[in-house]
Design goal:
heterodimer; A: 309 residues; alpha/beta; Rossmann fold; Alpha-Beta Plaits; elongated; B: mainly alpha
Chain lengths: 309, 279
């Protein structure tokens, strides 16, 4: 299948309502390529957004394009080019793994012989090669997650939507699943939209993220830029009366939180660096005994934007 | 020795055209049913009346030693009515889980995340039943008609009864569509195939019993249309130009069967969704 040059996802003021309840409220974003994390607390609207992109739900207002296709008009063309791994357990009763994946391929439009050949390949790829003739109803949770990934990949999509792909997996299984997702997005040129509440998973796999809170987009962009956007964080231990020091930082827009054992956690605003701390300490005659920059994580970004929303 | 590449590889084969995508669902449904021995047994059993009738036909038309049997429109209508006793169990076994099992296993998300519409899905499922119910009704009835033509040395039978072939097709399709869409609609209402089967059998039995009770209590056959089976029989009588066995006008039966077919299709279409909105 040819790779599209259009943006992977482009949303403008996308609004989805169920009755009087607004589930997505004016979501706007644009992602060009790679792996995109879809983040948000439970009930934020992540799954609804995925299902709107698939054409399962009609937007009440706004518009959206997936791989250049309009989500309201071209849902079949979109579904021809995407793979979807649902969050909940799902299979087609009465089938073994290879029949199921081949059937998924045929539903996507592959010829029976091609679909069967491809099903064997994909099952080996996701690590179910030895269990491919077993009935799906006998599969463990981890195997069911893998089979869902296999049916999403069988027709070689340009984009895959993965809804909580590591749910219910043990640590080893989780790492293996994330490894597969990294492989398809990193080495195979398949775009990935990963919806998860496990922020380390998203941070490990994705290059960009969209954070949704109460149906609104509260942050979107490359993860590195999102981290930079919330400013640097330092862990600092002081000797002396720190009130003036804190007041000056607060005036500059920085946040100081007390940690354990008298350690201050200081979040600087964008544009300020450690020199500002040293200067403030000198001005207010306090001694800095310990100053360590903390590594920003996606979790910090998430908490910051959710807290601020 | 070459090492087989087990990593992800891109695929660049040809796609099938979309208008026939529903056939994938039908083909898979038939394949799953054909793997069940009891189902094959039932289908083979349903062919026995055809064999018996073929022998009778041979004896009547070729040997000529069964003068009490007449090969006319009624002969074929009786055959189709007789086959209804196989249609019901086949509809239950083949159809009760068609949508209910998919609902139980959350399979609709799999189907509808592919380039498949709700119409494709329902058409695919419907044709599983149409084929399974058409095999013991439409196909043997038409074969029987063909045998009746072939066993005669002249074209006299065909000249007098050519219209019966049309009646066979119309009546068999009506039986097949009524039971298929009724079963499909009931299957879409529940996540349990067993419950769908019980509802189907219950609805048919209840309508029959109610029609019987009303007939006895009110001493009339005018209310026979309350039974789904009676409506089919009434329409069959009309299609095969036989005297109506019930007092009610045939348009009532046509209306009820039409409503059942349309209502079944509408209900199944409404119930098949990729995404349930929970408020």
């Amino acid at each position: 299948m040819s790779q599209s040059r259009a943006p992977v996802i482009e949303l403008e003021n996308l609004t989805v309502r169920f009755g009087s309840q607004t589930i997505l409220d004016g979501v706007a974003t644009r992602f060009d390529q790679g792996a995109i994390g879809l983040l948000g607390p439970n009930g934020a609207g992540k799954t609804t957004l995925l299902k709107t992109l698939l054409g399962f739900v009609a937007p009440a207002a706004g518009s959206g394009r997936v791989l250049g296709f309009d989500i309201a008009r071209d849902s079949l063309a979109i579904r021809q080019r995407i793979g979807y791994m649902p969050e909940n357990e799902c299979h087609i009763p009465g089938m073994n793994a290879v029949t199921f994946v081949a059937y998924a391929g045929q539903l996507a439009g592959m010829k029976p012989k091609d679909a069967m050949q491809r099903a064997h390949e994909i099952l080996y790829y996701v690590g179910l090669g030895e269990a491919r003739y077993r009935n799906l109803e006998t599969y463990s949770t981890g195997m069911k997650q893998r089979i869902k990934l296999a049916q999403a990949l069988v027709h070689d999509p340009e984009l895959v939507f993965l809804d909580e792909p590591t749910n219910g997996l043990d640590p080893k299984g989780r790492l293996e699943m994330l490894g597969l997702i990294r492989d398809i997005s990193g080495s195979k040129g398949i775009h990935v939209v990963l919806s998860s509440h496990l922020l380390p998973d998203v941070e490990w796999v994705c290059t960009a993220a969209l954070v949704i809170h109460r149906g609104r987009s509260v942050a979107s962009g490359r993860i590195e830029e999102l981290k930079r956007g919330i400013g640097a964080v330092y862990e600092c231990r002081l000797k002396g009366d720190s009130r003036g020091f804190r007041d000056e930082l607060a005036m500059l827009g920085c946040r100081c939180d007390d940690g354990e054992d008298g350690v201050l956690r200081i979040r600087l605003v964008e544009g300020l660096g450690s020199q500002s701390l040293v200067r403030a300490a000198r001005d207010h005659k306090v001694q800095i005994r310990h100053l360590v920059p903390l590594r920003q994580s996606l979790e910090d970004v998430f908490l910051e934007v959710i807290g601020g929303a | 020795m070459p090492i087989h590449d087990l990593s992800y590889r891109h695929w660049s084969g040809e796609w099938t055209s979309h208008p026939y995508r529903w056939w994938v669902i039908t083909r898979q449904g038939i394949r799953l049913l054909a793997a069940k021995k009891w189902f094959l047994g039932l289908m083979i059993l349903s062919a026995l009346p055809f064999v018996v009738r073929s022998v009778i036909l041979y004896l009547v038309t070729v040997v000529g030693n069964l003068p009490m049997v007449r090969v006319n429109a009624k002969f074929f209508l009786d055959f189709l009515n007789q086959q209804t006793s196989f249609v019901l169990p086949i509809a239950v076994f083949a159809g009760s889980g068609l949508i209910a099992s998919d609902l139980r296993a959350n399979a609709l998300q799999i189907y509808l995340s592919k380039p498949i519409t709700r119409r494709d899905y329902l058409l695919g499922k419907l044709f599983v039943l149409v084929i399974c119910l058409g095999l013991p009704t439409l196909v043997p009835a038409l074969l029987l008609f063909l045998l009746a033509v072939l066993f005669r040395s002249d074209l006299e039978f065909l000249r007098l009864n050519y219209w019966v072939a049309g009646s066979i097709v119309a009546y068999a399709l009506l039986i097949v569509l009524t039971y298929s869409l009724l079963m499909l609609a009931l299957s879409s209402l529940t996540r349990s195939a067993r419950f769908a089967a019980m509802n189907f059998i219950g609805l048919l039995l209840f309508s029959n019993i109610l029609a019987g009770i009303l007939g006895v209590m009110l001493r009339t056959r005018q209310l026979a249309w309350v039974s789904i089976g009676n409506n089919l029989t009434a329409v069959g009588d009309m299609l095969f130009s036989l005297d109506p066995r019930y007092g009610s006008p045939p348009w009532i039966s046509w209306g009820i069967l039409g409503a059942l077919i349309a209502g079944g299709a509408w209900l199944a279409h409404r119930r098949v969704k990729a995404f349930e909105v929970v408020r």
